[in-house]
Structures are given as structure tokens and as C-alpha cells.
């Protein structure tokens, strides 16, 4: 039995869709089984006897976390640790999702899994705490760090760009932060592959789509590819700006590219280029394939 925690989030919804089409039994939970409540987790595990637990739940509002760090820490730190303790107790393997925000973004080459972490803000600190608690409580863990996620369900950069590009004549987008846009489908597919493989060694792995760009480069490609599919008109002037010109209360890593060779060699599998993944995602939107049920 696979237990997907956070099944109604952006990643969770996509993973639920893949699990629904797969051959293994699975069960999902979200906020009704609060991960900050160890007894609720234990009860759920006792009823379902999972052999895999995937934690896709989190406190993900990066800006709000600056004002609510204790609450973010309770979920991203303590909550993740509670899940890990339950996984250990019931003999399940745990897959935990983490983030590029554990790094400070001052690097100049793709981050390796064992590079030193140094989060810049509250969200990154709470996610780093979660990684540490998962490691301590459940030796049989797989931590998947990802970045720049977008998908069908929830707030994300692609959805925001499509809306604003349809409404505005100009749009200013940051051009001095580099990373890799990642479709939730890519990460959900990797999670399914890790479970099917069964023998991936415990530890941390980086999972994003391949290649790199800036937020401005991502926006330009969204506009080009979405306009080509008739999703937006295409006349918006997308202008590059510096991070210093964009008001944000949270410092964001300037360089977020992650090295994916570890997961690719473990799974003998090639991650898709971010432009190809974006094209497939926009194809889904333009073909009006129904979004998965919430
Ligand atoms: N989005 C990104 O760009 C990004 C980048 C790097 C890493 N990640 C990581 O990827 C993972 C998935 O992110 P996402 O964007 O899919 O997140 P999301 O859309 O915010 O989904 C998280 C889910 O967890 C639920 N949740 C929150 N607190 C909970 C609690 N105490 N108990 C049980 N469920 C709770 C949320 O419910 P509510 O909505 O009701 O709060 C939501 O359904 C997270 O670990 C995140 O840190 C995301």
C-alpha cells in the first residue's frame, strides 16, 4: 500500500493521477490527517499498513513563512519528522520532498546532493530542518529535492504568467535568477519509478527537468509556446528586470540549478528538457484534458 500525504496539493494531485492509473494500491490523505498530529498519523498508518509513504505535504508559502516561521517549522520540520517516525515504526520506506531553497544560491555549477546547505530564508530553514528530522527518524528515507515546480493544480509561475500575459501589455520578469522549471508530472513520474524500482539506495537525490534558464527566459518561452497553441494572444512585451527591482520580502537563491546525475543513474532514466516538459504541459492545457479531481 502506498500512502500519499498531501494528495490535494500541486504535486500530490499529479502523483495521485499517476497512482490511479498504476497497478498498486494506494491511499491519499491531506489536511484532514494533520501531519503535526503524531497520533493521527499513527492511526492512519495502523488502518492502512503502508509499505511506502510519500510526503508531498508542506507549508509552501515562501513569503508568508517569513512571518510565520514557527508554523512553517511545525509542518515542514516537525510534521516531516512525525511522518518519518511513523514510517520507521511500521517498516515503510519514506519518500520526502524537499527544495533547492536549502541552498544559498551562491554557487556557479549545478548543486550536488552533498553540497553544504545554507538556506537564505525561513521557508528554506524549515525545509532543511525537515530533511534533518527525516534522516534522524527514518534511515530508510529517500529525499527528493526539486525546484521551480508548476502543474495543473495550485498557484505557480506558469498559471500566473498565462493570466498576466492575457491581461497586460507589458510584464517585467526577473532575469538574474537561474534555475530549472519543473513540471509536476516529471517529479511524480520519478516517484513512481523509485517505488517500482524498489532498490534505490536511501539518501538525497535532486529531481528537476533538465537544462536551465532565468525566470525571464521561462516567461518568454511560456509566451511563445502558449501563443503558438492559441492559449494567449501573444502581444505582451515581456521585459527583463533585476531582482533588486522586484519587491519581495524573501531573499531568493540567485542560482538554483541542481545536478540530477545521481537519480538518473539510479533509475537508468533520462529526465526531460524543461522546454519539452513545458510543451507537453501546454498541450494538455490546450487539448482541454480535464484537470485531475481535487
Ligand atoms: N512549488 C514549488 O515550486 C516547489 C519547489 C521546490 C520544492 N517544493 C516542495 O514540493 C512539495 C510539494 O509542493 P506543492 O507545491 O505541491 O505544495 P502545495 O500545493 O502547497 O501542497 C501541499 C499540500 O499539503 C497540505 N498540507 C499543509 N499543511 C498540512 C498539514 N499540517 N497536514 C497535512 N497536509 C498539509 C496542503 O493543504 P492546504 O493547501 O490546505 O494547506 C496542500 O494540500 C513540498 O514539499 C514543497 O516544499 C515545491
Q: Secondary-structure map with pairings?
A:
Layout: E1 2-5, H1 10-21, E2 26-29, H2 38-48, E3 52-55, H3 62-67, H4 69-90, E4 93-99, H5 122-137, E5 141-146, E6 149-150, H6 157-167, E7 170-174, E8 178-179, E9 182-183, H7 184-197, E10 203-206, E11 213-214, H8 215-228, E12 237-241, H9 261-267, H10 274-286
Parallel strand pairs: 1-2, 1-3, 3-4, 4-5, 5-10, 6-9, 7-12
Antiparallel strand pairs: 8-11
Helix pairs in contact: 1-7, 2-4, 4-5, 6-8, 8-10
The structure holds NADP nicotinamide-adenine-dinucleotide phosphate.
The site of NADP nicotinamide-adenine-dinucleotide phosphate has 26 residues, from α1, α4 and β4.
User: Helix-strand pattern, N to C?
Assistant: EHEHEHHEHEEHEEEHEEHEHH
**Shape category:** globular
How many strand segments? 12
CATH homologous superfamily title of the domain at 2-155 and 181-210 and 257-276: NAD(P)-binding Rossmann-like Domain
Number of helices: 10
What hetero molecules are bound to the protein chains? NADP nicotinamide-adenine-dinucleotide phosphate
**Helical percentage:** 40-55%
Name of the CATH class of the domain at 2-155 and 181-210 and 257-276: Alpha Beta
The rounded distance between the terminal residues' Cα atoms is 21 Å
Specify the structural class: alpha/beta
The rounded Rg comes to: 19 Å
- Segments where pLDDT lies below 50 for 5+ residues? none
Strand order of the largest sheet: 2-1-3-4-5-10
Largest sheet: 6 strands, parallel
CATH architecture of the domain at 2-155 and 181-210 and 257-276: 3-Layer(aba) Sandwich
In CATH, the topology of the domain at 2-155 and 181-210 and 257-276 is named: Rossmann fold
**Beta fraction:** 15-25%
Q: What do the pLDDT scores average to? A: 95
Amino acid at each position: 500500500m502506498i500512502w500519499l500525504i498531501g494528495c490535494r496539493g500541486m504535486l500530490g494531485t499529479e502523483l495521485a493521477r499517476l497512482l490511479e492509473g498504476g497497478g498498486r494500491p494506494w491511499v491519499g490523505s491531506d489536511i484532514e490527517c494533520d501531519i503535526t498530529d503524531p497520533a493521527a498519523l499513527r492511526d492512519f498508518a495502523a488502518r492502512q499498513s503502508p509499505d511506502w509513504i510519500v510526503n508531498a505535504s508542506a507549508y509552501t508559502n515562501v513569503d508568508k513563512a517569513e512571518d510565520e516561521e514557527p508554523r512553517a517549522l511545525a509542518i515542514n520540520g516537525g510534521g516531516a519528522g512525525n511522518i518519518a517516525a511513523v514510517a520507521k515504526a511500521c517498516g515503510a520506506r519514506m519518500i520526502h520532498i524537499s527544495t533547492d531553497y536549502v541552498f544559498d544560491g551562491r554557487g556557479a555549477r549545478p548543486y550536488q546532493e552533498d553540497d553544504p546547505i545554507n538556506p537564505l530564508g525561513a521557508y528554506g530553514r524549515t525545509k532543511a530542518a525537515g530533511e534533518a528530522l527525516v534522516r534522524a527518524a527514518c534511515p530508510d528515507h529517500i529525499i527528493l529535492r526539486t525546484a521551480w515546480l508548476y502543474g495543473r493544480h495550485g498557484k505557480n509561475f506558469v498559471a500566473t504568467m498565462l493570466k498576466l500575459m492575457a491581461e497586460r501589455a507589458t510584464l517585467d520578469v526577473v532575469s538574474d535568477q537561474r534555475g530549472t522549471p519543473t513540471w509536476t508530472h516529471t517529479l511524480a513520474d520519478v516517484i513512481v519509478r523509485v517505488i517500482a524500482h524498489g532498490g534505490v539506495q536511501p539518501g538525497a537525490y535532486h529531481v528537476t527537468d533538465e537544462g536551465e534558464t532565468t525566470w525571464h527566459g521561462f516567461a518568454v518561452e511560456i509566451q511563445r509556446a502558449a501563443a503558438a497553441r492559441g492559449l494567449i494572444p501573444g502581444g505582451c512585451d515581456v521585459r527583463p528586470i533585476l531582482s533588486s527591482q522586484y519587491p519581495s520580502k524573501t531573499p531568493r537563491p540567485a542560482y538554483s540549478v541542481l545536478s540530477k546525475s545521481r537519480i538518473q543513474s539510479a533509475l537508468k532514466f533520462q529526465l526531460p528538457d524543461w522546454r519539452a516538459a513545458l510543451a507537453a504541459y501546454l498541450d494538455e492545457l490546450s487539448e482541454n484534458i480535464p484537470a485531475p479531481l481535487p
